[in-house]
Description:
The chain is built from ten helices and nine strands. The chain is an alpha+beta fold.
Amino acid sequence: MKGPLFYSKILLFGEYGIIKDSKGLSIPYNFFKGALKRDKNDSKMAQESNKSLKAFAQYLKDLEQEEQGLVSFDILSLEQDVEKGMYFDSSIPQGYGIGSSGALVAAIYDRYATDKITVLENLTREKLLQLKKIFGRMESFFHGKSSGLDPLNSYLSLPILINSNDNIESASIPSQNTEGKGAVFLLDSGITGETAPMVQLFMENMKQEGFRNMVKNQFVKHTDACVEDFLNGNVKSLFGNLKQLSHLVFDHFKPMIPSKFHQLWQKGIETNDYYLKLCGSGGGGYILGFTQDLEKAKKALEGHTLEVVYNF
């Protein structure tokens, strides 16, 4: 048995902002993927994954009871498969902000949900919101509180445009220009990040009026503009807004930026060779970069590997 593949995702825009109703744009990233497997595998990874699936199965059983009518699973089959050693075979690094638990949630829903909404039907806004709600409840097992966006992206394998908390749609993004000099890239911070403490810190900061006003009047404004610019292929305006966004994160979200990247972050803003932003909640994992000249950015970020996600 080997299940279908589910991919990682990248939230290009909207980290933290979507908690406060900014726009967001999330795209599948096919470089990393995972699938449910039930072959003989005695590796530590497979054993840990199997143990986690056992606890997850119990959680889903409870969820069915607590929120009747939301989602139902073939729990018996799930438990039997877990007993037989099923695990999630994944190349998606954990704690890197690219949706490792999201892909697992999508895989479990795809295989064991009994009355599932499928990718093949007409995906109305209601259906997308229902899926997001189900996935949010499922993924809460891993994160405490989840928006459900990561599993949704992985399950549909489509770009998702978040207009607000209760308004999401699948989106088409401009096709890549493989000849172009510009790029979106990932930088590896070399450390894993934990989502829950970072979100908690953000919520604490939101209690301060100055921080609240900055999020509402500046952070959300530039995030929304970046989403619009990216979707419309308006590169010049996009980089203007990205610079503002990178600056705001550097000034107000410093604890979410791994300390060894503070200097590189500032250097990007000063030289305009590239702009860095958080990928997910930050604190570690990947950092997202944008440049209008990839060769220039590579020179400026010598010693770091740039994984290109999208070409302008």
